[in-house]
Hints:
Blueprint: E1 14-15, E2 55-60, H1 70-86, E3 96-101, H2 109-119, E4 124-127, H3 131-143, E5 147-150, E6 167-169, H4 174-187, E7 192-198, H5 201-216, E8 220-227, H6 235-244, E9 248-252, H7 257-266, E10 275-278, E11 300-304, H8 310-319, H9 329-346, H10 351-361, E12 366-368, H11 371-379, E13 384-386, E14 403-410, E15 423-428
Parallel strand pairs: 2-3, 2-4, 4-5, 5-6, 7-8, 7-9, 9-10, 10-11, 12-13
Antiparallel strand pairs: 1-15, 11-14, 14-15
Helix pairs in contact: 1-8, 1-9, 2-3, 4-5, 9-10, 9-11
Amino acid sequence: MIRIAPVGRALAVVAATSLALTACSGGGGDTATQASQSAAPASSAPAAKGDGTLTLGTLLPQTGSLAYLGPPEFAGVDLALKEINEAGGVLGKPVTKYDTDSGDTTTNIASQSVDKLLAQKADAIIGAASSSVSESVIDKITGAGVVHFSPANTSDKFTTIADKGLYFRTAPPDQLQGRVLGDLVIADGNDTVAIMAMQDSYGTGLGDQVQKTVTDAGGQVVVRVDYDPKAADFSADIAKIKAANPKGIVLIGFEETAKVIGELVKQGMPASKHKWYMVDGNMSNDNFKGMPKGTLDGVKGTYPGAAASDEFREKLLEVNKDLADFTYAPESYDATNLIALAAEAAKSDAGVDIAAKLGEVSKGGEKCTNFKECVDLLKAGKDIDYDGVSGPVEFNDAGDPAVATIGIYQYGPDNTYPVKALEYRTGNIGG
Length: 431
């Protein structure tokens, strides 16, 4: 395992030789087994009791600015659920699932979806992809005593947010991706850098970390533009970047990045003259298909995720044969498995009980890599350490993965990037 060096130092890297896949109902009954006081999270959430059937809700993008992330995330959940139920389910019963749309921050869809899932007695809700959307509903979810588990939130805010001990994520906080991306920009010889970041908790936080890493390494951020992603026109923003004439341009956003790129080209700042860099929010193989060939050739980008096998990708395609992107499918798969294993370990489907066991099943025991293998160990009375497709996970006290991997990808002349990363950089979240 290659560890990430401290900020400002060269990062150790490893060439990628294998596939990488990617960067936002318990109710009633008296049968819940209470977790020990030492294991339970500090929580003022209602002590909801389970009904013996684990019920999952998904709050993932079917519409909105991250809709392209929906299919791989749903596929990751569905694949895990298929394997879980084939292995006998959880607590001796099949797991139930309800799917809903998270939309984006321009609508109230997420709040309405959460209301539906709570009415359906969801014990855990997987989503949202957008950090800002999750932030808008976290109080409603955790206030009901339900686990809120995102496979894609990367905003640093969630590390310290008031969550009643019920929020978890398999995607690492942006401080890690920002360090990797900032070091990559400097390593590529860009001593002058522009940052164009969408103005929300995701864009601002990731932009801050990239800026810190670049400046700590001796580079200069000559211009930074924090923009409204719903703006009709980005010409004035790009004009500011053009006036600063940076060597490297970091683009932090969602689907509106296609419009930003169009304006960069229009104003004479193509990737062939200024090195462009993107992030998990806008790395896509669908969003740029309509652009002239070669527009993104050589553009690099980062998103979280360890190398995953061809076999895993093939299984995802069996679930959804039309998948074009695999971003956050591994994290969604791991989130589902971890919730199910925590319920088995707790012998309860109640959200508070599941949360109390999530850290325990992610580290410190006998290693296992899929639900059946892990649940067999639990039933044999063993402690387990689930190592997933997205990485080792290993939750810290904040519900963040303590160690994570960031893949670095490069677009080709057809404006898509391959499933194999150029390299992977792995490190501790704390530096």
